[in-house]
Specification:
about 15% strand, five-stranded mixed sheet, about 500 residues, three-stranded mixed sheet
Length: about 500
């Protein structure tokens, strides 16, 4: 009987099948499909590790059915290695892999629906060609949510993207009418009306358009992220949690908005005064100190930074190192302020090892003096600045006369205006009180944005909480008289001013 069947269908041994893949799935499907009485049988010969032969008798198919199944699995087995690798990379393939042995059997006891089998085979072919893309459905995590965003790719096919949902409750509250102005000012160092003005000014530069993948971050939220970060100096991780944005997104928004402030707002709110405003400044300073033709009070402060990789010794700050008992590095902000404490000129970014005099010589203010733009005007500084024809500094002698002592008091009154302006600058913008983590090449842009925002707050009358006042220390440097050449005309002019102040005061 067996010999007759072997002559009719051929002996089916290991070499008749392309691989173990075809043998395995063909055998399983044959067992399922032929689970019915049959009068025929066939032999499958397999060679074991011990080189012995085993004979198994199972129900057998007719020639047409056997040829159909054999051809189907032979095609599957001839897939390239790339196709197999591609199937392995499909998301959720392991969870949704369809095994031939698990094909659903219809209600009929002995029949398989041809349409169901063809559907399964078609889906497997789609997997093979990489046209079916399954997206993993994330499991819920406590405290976090997720959402699926549907989008169309270039071929018009829809695909789903994973977007992490974050809580925006804090920002939604502060951006609503329910938030009182006092609480808003505590977080952003300015009133809602001033914040709205800044947003309107930056609208054309900061606003982004929606894309097919996601909605753009609103303008007000972009500006708020930057101002909050500058105001509090909180780490980006906390800013990210409050505004419901990614950490890298918050960092990017801070830099983008600072660049927009420097481009759009700086020309409007931090500029050299015109002739009319210059006369007003001279009059206001004259009424404060009694010294005529004073244009402004100059001061220099230091901002702590991480030691740069290139030329770190240039940024080494000796005073901060002695106070902190560890190496400290800094960069500088030099500013000229008017009687209101508004900056009219700034010089940012010079290394912390430089003296006030060295920074002044490289500043735009000194260049203006060389061009003759500071004639008939005076700038008042502390003892760290040199005495010049256009620069007044206090006497540093040990034994002072009455006139010299009176002169120093008047100069200190004007100098205090500049120092207080820097105290409010650092008090409002807490990022200036800590060691900055911003890259050195991007730091001047951030510091300039802080100065512009300071001017806006001063011009719009934004009151500052007393608790935010920052005590200035380790900024002033006394210069040795022998370390610089002093103009004789500058010495005589200062003595004449000191003499007139003493007599006019009596």
């Amino acid at each position: 009987m067996h010999d007759i069947e072997e002559q009719q269908y051929g002996s089916i041994n290991e070499s008749s099948f392309p691989s173990a893949f075809t043998r395995f799935f063909t055998l399983n499907l044959l067992c399922i499909y032929t689970n019915q009485p049959s009068h025929s049988s066939f032999q499958i010969h397999t060679q074991t590790k011990a080189s012995t032969m085993e004979t198994t008798s199972i129900p057998f198919l007719d020639q047409q059915d056997f040829s159909y199944f054999y051809t189907f699995f032979q095609d599957l087995d001839t897939d390239s290695d790339d196709s197999l690798t591609k199937r392995r990379k499909i998301d959720d393939f392991d969870d949704q892999q369809i095994s031939i042995s698990k094909f659903e059997i219809p209600n009929s006891e002995f029949e398989i629906s041809n349409s169901d089998f063809e559907y399964k085979a078609s889906e497997m072919a789609d997997w093979d060609q990489g046209r079916v893309r399954k997206t993993r459905i994330p499991s819920p995590v406590a405290g976090y949510g997720g959402g699926m965003v549907a989008a169309e790719d270039g071929g018009g096919q829809r695909r789903r993207l994973w977007v992490k949902e974050r809580s925006k409750g804090w920002w939604k509250y502060h951006n609503s009418d329910e938030c009182p102005d006092v609480e808003f000012r505590k977080a952003f160092r300015m009133s809602k009306s001033t914040f709205d003005m800044i947003c309107d000014e930056l609208d054309s530069v900061v606003t982004k358009k929606d894309t097919m993948l996601r909605m753009a971050i609103p303008l007000r939220q972009r500006v708020a992220v930057c101002i909050y970060r500058l105001a509090t100096g909180d780490p980006l991780r906390k800013v990210s949690a409050l505004f419901g944005l990614g950490i890298s997104t918050c960092h990017k928004l801070v830099l983008e908005v600072c660049a927009a402030i420097q481009t759009v707002l700086m020309p409007k709110f931090l500029q050299w005064p015109n002739d009319q405003r210059l006369e007003e400044i001279k009059t206001e300073f004259g009424s404060i100190s009694g010294i005529s033709d004073v244009k402004g009070s100059i001061y220099t402060t230091h901002i702590s930074i991480i030691a740069p990789k290139i030329n770190p010794e240039a940024y080494f700050n000796k005073r901060h190192t002695n106070r902190n008992q560890k190496p400290s590095y800094s960069t500088t902000i030099q500013g000229l302020v008017d009687p209101r404490g508004v900056f009219t000129d700034i010089c940012i970014g010079y290394p912390g090892s430089m003296t006030d005099e060295q920074i002044l010589e490289k500043s735009a203010l000194c260049q203006r003096s060389k061009m003759g733009l500071l004639k008939n005007t005076r700038v008042i500084g502390n003892s760290g600045y040199p005495l010049k024809d256009w620069m007044l500094v206090p006497y540093t002698y040990k034994n002072l006369s009455w006139s010299q002592h009176s002169f120093n008091q008047k100069v200190n009154e004007v100098q205090k205006i500049g120092k207080d302006a820097f105290m409010r600058l650092k008090g409002r913008w807490g990022c200036l009180q800590k060691r900055s983590e911003v890259k050195l090449q991007e730091l001047p842009m951030v510091l300039g944005a802080c100065c512009v925002l300071h001017n806006i707050c001063e011009m719009y009358g934004e009151e500052m909480d007393v608790d935010l006042m920052f005590d200035m220390y380790d900024d002033e440097m006394d210069m040795e008289i022998d370390s610089r050449g002093i103009s004789v005309n500058a010495l005589e002019a200062r003595d004449n001013i000191a003499h007139n102040l003493l007599h006019h005061s009596h």
